[in-house]
Amino acid sequence: MKELFDELIELLDKGEEAALATIIASSGSTPRGAGSRMLVRKDGTIRGTVGGGAVEYKTIQAALEAISRRASYMKGFTLTRNQVADIGMVCGGDVMVYIQYINPQDGAFRELAERIRAALSRDGDSWLVLDVTDETCWQMGLYEKEGGIYGIPQECMEDLMPGFGIRAVRREAGGRTWYIEPLVQAGTVYIFGGGHVAQELVPVLAHVGFRCVVMDDRADFACLELFPQAEKVIVGDLERISDHIELRPCDYVCVMTRGHQFDYYVQKQCLAKKPCYIGIMGSRNKIRVVTEKLLQDGFTKEEIEGCHMPIGTDIQAETPAEIAISVAGELIAVRAERMGRGKRHV
Quick one: pLDDT at residue 112? Predict the structure, then answer.
C-alpha cells in the first residue's frame, strides 16, 4: 500500500492524471476482497492489484475511461464460471469497484495522500473513509486513533464511529453512504535472537506489511547491516526486555535465541505481557524443558499451550529460509484472524 501511495504522489507532483480503483464490496469466489486497491496510470500501466484476470482487465479499462471523462464512478462486475477459471477459481462472484479520478491540480487530495503515506509508516490504528453517496463527486478522509480525522467533516464522526472496526464496511450515517476501511492496524513483530532464521524472516515479514524489531544481546547479531528492513534493532539484556520495549496486546513475539535458557527468559517475560502471538523456535525436547520451568514459575498449562511451539506452520521446513516462510505464514494467518477475515472458499 505504501508503494502505491508513493507512486500516486509522484504522479501528482509530475502533474499526471490517474485513477484509483478500490474494491468496496465482493461476494462469492472473487480473487480479492474489499480494500484491494490498484492505481491506474494514464498509459494503462498499474501499481497494486484488484485480483488479476477478468476483474483487473475490466477495471483498467473502466479506470482509463474515468481518466478520459475526468469523472469518478462505481462499476460492478459479475464473473462467470469461464472468467474465474482464467484466474484459477471455479465459481462465479460479484465485485463492486469504486474508481476515483485523480486530478493532479487537487491540492487537498495531495495533502491527504501525504498523510496516508505517513500513517502507513506509523504503528497505530488508522482507517480510510470514503463518502460514496455521490459516486461522481467522491470525498476521501483519514481517521487515526491518535491523530483524529482529516478530510471528513468533524460533525460526521459521531455517526461514523461504530464503523471503525477491524473489517471494511459500508455504512449509512447522517443521510450519506460511507465506505470505511482499516488502513493500518497497530502491531509490531518482536524477534528475539538475530541468527540465521531471523535474518531470513525479517525481509519476508517486511514485504507482507509487518513492522519488525529485532533484539539480541550480541552486537554482532543486532545491527542494521544484517536487518536493513527492520524498524529497529536493539542490543540489550534478554533477561530485561522491558528496559527496551513495551509489549502490547496487539504485538507479536518470535523467540529464536541461541539457547533454551535465553528462550526461557524471553518467553517468561512475554507470557506476563500477553501479546496476541508468541512463537517459540526449537526442538520439542528444548520446548519441553522450557515448559517445565514455566510451569514451576506458576504459569498455567493453558497459558503455555497458547504459545505456538514449535513456531511456524507445518510445511516440513528445514533450512532457515524455509523456516522463515513457515513463520511468516503463521503470522499472516494470525493477523487475518485478528482483522476478522475468515477463510476464503472456492
Answer: 95
What pLDDT, on the 0 to 100 scale, is given for residue 188? 96
28-76 pLDDT, tens per residue? 555 557 778 999 999 999 999 888 777 888 899 999 999 999 999 988 8
What value does the CA radius of gyration of the chain take, rounded to a whole number of Å? 23
Q: Which three cell numbers stand for residue 275?
A: 501479546
Q: Mapping DSSP to helix (H, G, I), strand (E, B) and coil, where does residue 324 land?
A: helix
Task: Name the residue among 253, 269, 262, 258 with its Cα closest to residue 309.
Answer: 253
The ranges of the chain with pLDDT < 70 are 27-32, 79-93, 340-346
DSSP 25: E
In a 13 Å sphere around the CA of 109, the CA atoms on its Cβ side amount to: 22
How far, in Å, CA of 63 to CA of 18, rounded? 8
Those residues with Cβ within 8 angstroms of residue 9's Cβ, 6 or more apart along the chain or in another chain:
110, 113, 114, 117
All residues at 6 or more sequence positions from 124 whose CB lies less than 8 Å from its CB, including other chains: 144, 145, 146, 147, 184, 186
The pLDDT, as a whole number, for residue 152 is 85
* Helix ranges, 120-195 (H): 157-160
274: left (phi over 0), alpha (psi -120 to 50) or beta: left
CA distance 60 to 288: 54
- The predicted structure's pLDDT at residue 344: 43
- Cα distances (Å, whole numbers) of residue 171 to 37, 96, 132, 143, 182: 19, 15, 10, 15, 14
Q: Supply 198's cell numbers.
A: 531471523
CA gap 113, 5 in Å, rounded: 7
